[in-house]
Amino acid sequence: MASTSLLGLYSLLITNQNGLLCITSNGCDLLKDMPDIAHIHWRPLDHELNMDAIHSVEQTLGIVFPTYYLDFIRACGGFDAGRDFIYPSAMGNEFRRVLIEFNHQGRLWQQHLETLLSPDEPGFISDISEMQYFLEGEMPSDDKLIKLVPITVDNGNMFICLDFRESATEPSIAFVNVADELAVHPIATSFMALLKMLTFDKN
């Protein structure tokens, strides 16, 4: 599915080709300078996105999900695991866990990407409310919800989020650690910049 956005004003085509993420614009490969992505295998979302649920989340938060993000969830939002495999993962002689690698408080930080959170999941707004409760110490009403949308969570308290606080249509990326006094940390200016942070366990 092609999408037009302010993400460099690209017309984006986001697809899953035999487990590999492909993002092109007018025939140009936008991932060619991200070699680790070529080793990461994904599963497509196992259901059609519930657009009524998506629109409900958008209306509640006062945001609009970029089409390229919803296309990414369709292409890569699935999860599967067995005794000797897991998706998403890096493929080689054995499956390796996918990591999001970024600088945090003066040191290199690695967060596991075990599954992607789809914004049409039941209870998604409640999950945002709970995250905000741990950040601020009180449960917010729907009209006071923070404009942070979790993409993935690690260890139950560390989130990578779409950050719509500055723009309701073109989010940046934030790391949210609800156990941290300075809990919301900007880590990337765009979703494409987040993809550049993807790597995998090479040990």
Automatic annotation (TrEMBL):
InterPro entries: Knr4/Smi1-like_dom, Knr4/Smi1-like_sf. Pfam families: SMI1_KNR4. This is Knr4/Smi1-like domain-containing protein. It comes from Litoribacillus peritrichatus. Signal peptide: none annotated. The lineage of its organism: Bacteria, Pseudomonadati, Pseudomonadota, Gammaproteobacteria, Oceanospirillales. Residues 44-197 form the Knr4/Smi1-like domain.
